[in-house]
C-alpha cells in the first residue's frame, strides 16, 4: 500500500499537465544552477565554519554555542557536533557528489563527538542529527551495494546513530511517555549536572515527530526499544486529542497530558505530527497510522481549512478562530496533501503562498489573512520549495517549474552573500541576519534539484525512499525489516474509527481533473485576490449569536457598557500610574465557559491589535554596500531616526561613499570637512545627542550619516533595533538621513572601509536589487506590514501585553533609542500582563495560545520580546558605560575582526567572476 501513494503521483502528472513544457536544456540549466548554489553554501561552511555547527555568512565564521551571544531556544539545535555537515550528508549523494560524500563521512567518523556536556533539543537533534546519520547510512549502504563507492564502509554512521539514540532515550522517562523537550547528551535529564529535566511542557510536534527516525533506527539495528518509545508517545498524543473536534493542541504537559495551549492548526507547534502519522504509514506499512491521520485530516479540512487559507482554531470550540494570521511553516501542508491524494486544496493553498512569495520575495515568518507581513523574518525555510516539488510530481504542470525558478532567483538576488546565503532579517527592507541554518543545505537544495531533475539525472531511484521532515532519505524497504515492540500500541477502537469516507489510495484523477485546465482555473481567483490592495476580512461573528461580542478594535476604557462586558468575560482593567491601562483575565471570574472563551479571544485580539498599531514606530532601514567587490550583496539592518529624510518616501534612497568623520564622536565641528563633503559620514555613538551629530556633519557637507554603536558585541541579531530621537527641539533643519548600526554590523562596514579606501553604500528603506528598480505596485501591502516588536502602542484602548512570539528568534521592528542626554520621550514597552488560556484562575502574563513552532526555532524555540531602550547617562552605551576620548578613531578592538574580514574579502575576490557570470545569466 505504501507504494500506491507514490506511484499515483505519476498518473496525476500524466492527466494534469498543462501549458508549455520547459525544455530539457532549460531544466538542465536550472538544475546546474542549484548545484552551483549548493556548492557556494557548502564550501563556505567547510572553509570557514567547520567543525562548528553552523556558518555565520555575514562575518564568515562558524557559530559555536557559548562563544556567540545566546539566541535563546534556537541555539538548542547546536550541540557541538558539526550539525551542518551531518545534516548535509545525503544531500551530497542526491546531487551526485559521491567523492565529497566519502570525504564527509570520514570526517564525521573522526571529528564528531556525541558525548558533549551540552543541553540540546530532543526534537531538533532527532530530525537533524539522528536523521542525518541515518540518511547518510542509507546512502552509504546504497553506494556500497552498487559496488563502485564506499566499499570501505562498515556501518560506522549507524553505530553513531545508535549511540545518539541511546543518549536521547532518557528524555522519554516520563509517566506519559512524552519526551522532555531537552536532554543533556552526556548526563541525560536527571541530576543537577544535567541542567535540564525541569520542563513541564513540550509542543505536539516536538513529541510526535520521532517515529520515522526511531523506527528506522530500531529496524536498522534490530533493537526495538527506540520504535517502542516513539510509538508510545504517539499513542499518548492520540489519546489526548479533543474527542469532539479530533484536533490536538499546540503545547501539552508531558506529565499530566493536559493541553497547555489549546489552539490548533497545521503550522508551527503541530505541523510534523500530522506529517509523521501519514509518513509512518508509508514507511512502516502500519494501517493504524493511516487511520489516525485520516481522522485528523477530516477535522483539519472541516475546521482549519478555509481555502486557500489555513487558520488556527480552538480545539474545544473549533468554529472559533484562534488568530487572524498564518505562519510560514504551514507551507509544507500542500505537499502533505499531495501524498494524501487531495490535490485541489493543495493547489489552492500553494497558489496563495506563491502569490505572497512574489509580493514579498520570500514567505514572511507570519502573514495576515489579507497577505500583509505580520512577522518579517525569513530564515531561508524550505517548506514552500517542498510543496512546489510535490505538486509538480503530482501534476506535471510546468507552472511549478516556474515557481521553482522564482525561488532560485530570489535566493540569488536577495539572500546570496560572498560567504554563503544569509537569512532575511526583514523581507520588507531586504536586510540580512548572520545565520545560515543547517536545514537550508539539508532540504532546500534537495527539493530544488529534484524539481528540475529527470530520472536519468539521479544515481538512484528516489521513489524507493521516504523524506523525513528534515528531508533525510529512509528506505521504504524498512517496512519489511524484522521488528517487535515491547510497548504495545494503543489500537484505535472501532467506535472511534469510521473510515468509510476515507480513500486509502489517491483519488480517481479523471474525476478530480476532468478539464486539463482545471488547476489553472483554481489558481486564477486566488492570484487575483492576493493581487488586490490587501482588503481586510469582515469582522468575525460567532455562529448562533445575534450580535458580535465585544471586539478589541471597538473597546473604549471609559465606556461603562464595555467594562461590563469585560467583567462578564472575566477580564479586569487596571489603571497604571503612568496613565496606561492593563488588562488581566481570570477565567474563573467569567460568568460562563463561553464568556471565558470570548475573553480569551478578546485578549488575543487586543495583543494582535497592539502589535499591528505601530505606525508611530519607524520600521528598520537598510544599509547596502554597493561598491566593488560587494555589489549590493551585503545588507546591514539599521535603526532609523525620528528626524531627517524619511527613506520610506524616497524612491532612490541616498547613495554615496562612506568616510569616517573627525572627531569620530561628531560632537564638535568636523575637522576633515573636505573628506566628509558629499559623502556619508560614519560616527561613533555617545557624548552628545544624535541631532547634534547630524547638524555637525551636515554643516560639513555630508549627504547622510551612520552612527555606530561603541558597545563591543552589540548586534541587531540579539537586540531590538533602536530609533534615534531628536533633541527636544525642532529638527526641521536636518533634511539628510541618519541611521544607526550596532557594533557588529558597524564593524563590517569599518573593516570594509579599511580594506577598500572607497566603499559606496546605499541608505534606503529596503535593499535594492543590483541595478534593478523595485516594483511599486505592491506598496499598499508593504507599507502596512507588521512585524513582532518589543514596543506596544500606549493608550487607553489597548491592552498592555508581553506577548511571547515563539516562531523565530530574531526580532524585527523599530525599537527606540535616544542619544544619551536627549530629553525626548523614550518609547519603551510597558510591563504587561495578558491572558490567553481559559484555564482555571489564571492571571497570565503571556498568551498561552500564541505561536510555538516545532521545526527548529523552527519548531521548538521560545522567543522573549526584548525591551528597547536608551541610555540613561551621558555617553553610556546600550549595555554599559564607556568614556572614549574625543576624536578617537574606530580601530580599537578590531584586530580579531580584521582577520575574519581578511578571509571574507579574499573569498569575495574569488567570487567576483561567479557574480559577473550570474549577471550575464540575468540572475
Give the gist of this structure.
The chain has 923 residues and is of the alpha+beta class.
Structural commentary:
This protein is 38% helix and 11% strand. It has 923 residues and is an alpha+beta fold. A 7-stranded mixed β-sheet has the order 24-23-29-25-26-27-28, with helices on both faces. The chain has a 3-stranded antiparallel β-sheet with strand order 5-6-7. A 3-stranded antiparallel β-sheet has the order 12-13-14, with no helix packed on it. A hairpin with a 5-residue loop joins β6 and β7. α10 (271-284) packs antiparallel against α11 (287-304), α14 packs antiparallel against α15 and α23 packs across α26. The two termini are 43 Å apart. Mean pLDDT is 79; it is low at 1-18, 497-512, 533-548, 771-854, 856-899 and 914-923.
Amino acid at each position: 500500500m505504501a507504494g500506491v501513494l507514490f506511484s499515483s503521483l505519476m498518473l496525476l502528472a500524466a492527466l494534469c499537465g498543462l501549458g508549455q513544457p520547459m525544455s530539457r536544456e532549460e531544466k538542465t540549466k536550472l538544475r546546474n544552477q542549484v548545484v552551483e548554489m549548493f556548492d557556494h553554501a557548502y564550501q563556505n561552511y567547510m572553509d570557514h565554519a567547520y567543525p562548528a555547527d553552523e556558518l555565520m555568512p555575514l562575518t564568515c565564521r562558524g557559530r559555536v554555542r557559548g562563544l556567540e551571544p545566546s539566541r535563546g531556544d534556537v541555539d538548542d539545535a547546536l550541540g557541538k557536533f558539526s550539525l551542518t555537515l551531518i545534516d548535509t550528508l545525503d544531500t551530497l549523494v542526491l546531487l551526485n557528489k559521491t567523492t565529497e560524500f566519502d570525504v564527509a563521512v570520514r570526517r564525521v567518523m573522526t571529528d564528531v563527538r556525541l558525548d558533549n556536556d551540552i543541553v540540546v533539543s530532543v526534537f531538533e537533534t532527532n530530525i537533524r542529527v539522528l536523521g542525518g546519520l541515518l540518511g547518510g547510512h542509507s546512502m552509504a549502504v546504497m553506494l556500497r551495494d552498487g559496488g563502485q563507492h564506499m566499499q570501505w564502509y562498515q556501518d560506522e554512521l549507524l553505530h553513531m546513530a545508535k549511540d545518539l539514540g541511546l543518549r536521547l532515550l532518557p528524555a522519554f522517562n516520563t509517566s506519559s511517555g512524552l519526551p522532555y523537550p531537552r536532554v543533556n547528551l552526556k548526563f541525560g535529564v536527571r541530576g543537577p549536572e544535567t541542567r535540564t529535566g525541569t520542563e513541564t511542557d513540550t509542543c505536539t510536534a516536538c513529541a510526535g515527530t520521532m517515529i520515522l527516525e526511531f523506527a528506522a533506527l530500531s529496524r536498522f539495528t534490530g533493537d526495538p526499544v527506540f520504535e517502542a518509545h516513539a510509538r508510545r508517545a504517539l499513542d499518548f498524543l492520540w489519546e489526548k486529542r479533543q474527542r469532539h473536534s479530533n484536533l490536538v493542541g499546540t503545547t501539552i504537559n508531558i506529565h499530566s497530558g493536559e493541553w497547555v495551549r489549546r489552539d490548533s492548526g497545521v503550522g508551527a507547534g503541530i505541523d510534523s505530527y500530522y506529517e509523521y502519522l501519514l509518513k509512518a504509514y508509508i514507511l512502516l506499512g502500519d494501517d493504524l497510522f493511516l487511520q489516525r491521520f485520516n481522522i485528523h485530516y477530516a477535522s483539519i479540512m472541516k475546521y482549519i481549512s478555509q481555502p486557500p487559507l489555513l487558520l488556527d482554531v480552538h480545539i474545544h470550540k473549533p468554529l472559533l478562530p484562534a488568530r487572524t494570521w498564518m505562519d510560514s511553516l504551514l507551507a509544507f501542508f500542500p505537499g502533505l496533501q499531495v501524498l494524501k491524494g487531495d490535490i485541489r486544496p493543495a493547489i489552492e493553498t500553494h497558489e496563495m503562498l506563491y502569490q505572497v512569495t512574489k509580493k514579498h520575495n520570500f514567505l514572511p515568518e507570519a502573514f495576515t489573512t489579507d497577505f500583509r507581513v505580520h512577522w518579517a523574518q525569513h530564515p531561508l525555510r524550505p517548506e514552500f520549495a517542498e510543496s512546489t516539488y510535490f505538486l509538480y510530481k503530482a501534476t506535471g504542470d510546468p507552472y511549478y517549474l516556474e515557481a521553482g525558478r522564482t525561488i532560485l532567483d530570489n535566493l540569488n538576488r536577495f539572500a546570496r552573500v560572498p560567504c554563503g546565503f544569509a537569512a532575511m532579517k526583514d523581507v520588507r527592507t531586504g536586510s540580512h541576519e548572520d545565520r545560515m541554518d543547517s536545514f537550508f543545505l539539508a532540504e532546500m537544495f534537495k527539493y530544488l534539484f529534484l524539481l528540475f531533475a529527470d530520472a536519468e539525472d539521479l544515481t538512484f531511484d528516489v521513489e524507493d525512499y521516504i523524506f523525513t521532515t528534515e528531508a533525510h532519505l529512509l528506505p521504504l524497504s524498512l517496512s519489511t525489516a524484522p521488528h517487535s515492540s515491547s510497548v504495545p500500541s494503543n489500537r484505535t477502537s472501532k467506535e472511534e474509527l469510521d473510515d468509510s469516507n476515507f480513500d486509502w489510495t489517491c483519488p480517481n484523477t479523471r474525476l478530480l481533473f476532468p478539464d486539463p485546465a482545471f488547476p489553472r482555473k483554481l489558481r486564477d481567483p486566488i492570484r487575483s485576490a492576493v493581487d488586490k490592495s490587501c482588503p481586510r476580512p469582515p469582522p468575525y461573528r460567532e455562529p448562533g449569536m445575534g450580535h458580535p461580542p465585544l471586539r478589541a478594535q471597538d473597546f473604549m476604557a471609559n465606556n461603562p457598557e464595555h467594562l461590563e462586558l469585560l467583567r462578564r468575560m472575566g477580564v479586569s482593567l487596571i489603571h497604571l500610574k503612568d496613565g496606561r491601562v492593563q488588562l488581566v483575565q481570570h477565567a474563573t471570574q467569567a460568568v460562563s465557559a463561553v464568556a471565558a472563551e470570548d475573553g480569551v479571544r478578546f485578549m488575543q485580539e487586543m495583543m494582535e491589535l497592539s502589535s499591528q498599531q505601530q505606525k508611530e514606530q519607524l520600521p528598520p532601514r537598510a544599509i547596502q554596500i554597493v561598491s566593488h567587490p560587494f555589489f549590493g550583496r551585503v545588507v546591514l539592518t539599521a535603526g532609523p531616526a525620528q528626524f531627517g529624510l524619511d527613506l520610506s518616501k524616497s524612491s532612490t534612497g541616498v547613495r554615496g561613499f562612506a568616510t569616517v568623520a573627525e572627531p569620530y564622536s561628531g560632537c564638535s565641528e568636523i575637522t576633515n570637512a573636505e573628506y566628509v563633503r558629499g559623502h556619508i559620514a560614519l560616527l561613533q555613538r555617545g557624548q552628545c545627542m544624535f541631532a547634534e551629530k547630524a547638524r555637525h556633519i551636515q554643516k560639513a557637507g555630508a549627504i547622510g550619516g551612520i552612527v555606530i554603536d561603541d558597545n563591543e558585541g552589540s548586534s541587531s541579531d540579539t537586540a531590538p533595533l533602536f530609533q534615534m530621537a531628536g533633541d527636544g527641539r525642532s529638527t526641521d533643519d536636518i533634511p539628510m538621513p541618519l541611521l544607526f548600526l550596532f557594533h557588529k554590523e558597524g564593524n563590517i562596514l569599518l573593516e570594509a572601509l579599511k580594506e577598500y579606501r572607497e566603499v559606496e553604500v546605499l541608505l534606503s528603506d529596503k535593499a535594492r536589487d543590483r541595478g534593478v528598480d523595485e516594483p511599486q505596485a505592491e506598496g499598499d501591502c508593504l507599507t502596512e506590514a507588521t512585524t513582532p516588536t518589543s514596543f506596544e502602542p500606549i493608550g487607553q484602548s489597548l491592552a498592555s501585553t508581553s506577548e511571547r512570539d515563539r516562531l523565530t528568534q530574531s526580532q524585527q521592528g523599530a525599537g527606540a533609542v535616544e542619544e544619551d542626554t536627549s530629553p525626548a520621550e523614550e518609547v519603551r514597552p510597558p510591563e504587561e500582563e495578558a491572558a490567553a488560556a481559559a484555564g482555571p484562575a489564571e492571571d497570565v502574563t503571556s498568551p498561552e495560545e500564541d505561536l510555538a513552532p516545532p521545526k527548529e526555532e523552527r519548531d521548538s524555540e521560545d522567543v522573549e520580546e526584548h525591551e528597547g531602550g536608551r541610555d540613561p547617562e551621558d555617553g553610556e552605551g546600550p549595555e554599559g558605560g564607556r568614556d572614549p576620548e574625543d576624536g578617537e578613531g574606530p580601530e580599537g578592538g578590531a584586530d580579531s575582526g580584521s582577520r575574519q574580514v581578511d578571509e571574507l574579502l579574499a573569498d569575495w575576490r574569488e567570487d567576483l567572476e561567479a557574480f559577473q557570470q550570474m549577471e550575464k545569466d540575468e540572475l
